[in-house]
Amino acid sequence: MAARKQQPPTPPPSSPEPGRRRYFIDREDRAVRYSTRPDREREQAMIDFFGAQPLLSLRANMRSMDSILSEITSTLPQEDDTLSPEVLRAGWERAAGAFISSQAELLSIVKGTATIRTSQPAIRYELTRQKNTLISKLCTEFGGESITGIRILHG
Length: 155
Description:
The chain is of the alpha+beta class. It has six helices and five strands; from the N terminus they run ββααααββααβ. The strands form two sheets. The chain has a three-stranded mixed beta sheet with strand order 3-4-5. A two-stranded antiparallel ribbon has the order 1-2.
């Protein structure tokens, strides 16, 4: 009987399967893209022939998210403190009254919508009934036509 040749084990693929990550994290905690063997060989041949590193470095433009976010937030316009939590709380107490302001909280005013949170279903019902009067009172508190709607959260 002839002995069968044992085939060498197949090496793991150099690129990930479709749908998987296309990068790995190296020792310096940087993301590096996978490249196929022919791509690596072609790149090495170009390096050997021309005697220089490729112009495109996969690590050259890598930056941490902290540096990107700090750069973006530094360019945003700084808002004044007219709608700080203390100002919102004081304006809500004057507009809604003592009882309702103790049972419900004005969370924010964003794009003309005042967001109010309450844990009492009865107070939620009263707020929905008094929606138009609350909008007019909040507009007088916070100036002009700044509030056009109310969103009530339960919980």
